[in-house]
Amino acid sequence: MTKSIRNAKSTTKQAAKKPAARPRARADKEDGESAVLAKIAAMPGPDRAMGERLHAIIKASAPDLSPTLWYGMPAYAKDGKVVCFFRDRQKFKERYMTFGFSDKANLDEGGLWPIYFALKELTAAEEAKVSALVKKAVS
What we know:
Low-confidence stretches: 19-27
Radius of gyration: 21 Å
Structural class: alpha+beta
Distance between the termini: 63 Å
CATH architecture: Alpha-Beta Complex
Mean pLDDT: 86
Order of helices and strands: HHHEEEEEH
Number of strands: 5
Number of helices: 4
CATH class: Alpha Beta
Number of domains: 1
């Protein structure tokens, strides 16, 4: 085998060992925010209004969270890990909107605690609960 063929094979093997290039992560907060706002804008009327309100509550309660899309749902992450999210009722043909937390949320309380909530409406009482849960989740 000639030296140039050996060098070519060696270079090919080295290239194969390198990890595949990954697409650039959406580290830019504005990109995540615009994607979340676009997803909310595409929701049906009542869900869109609740989504806009949830977005505002989450941002006010935990400004360090970065908006992002997670499995096609508006979500909010801390250090790249999703903490909370919501989905419209149309996503899984449910009768209510869902607000939930991932396992990265600091909500542990004993051996059992809720992580998903059904939202039929957002009154001042529900808004206060969401705000308190989000604050606790990131603490």
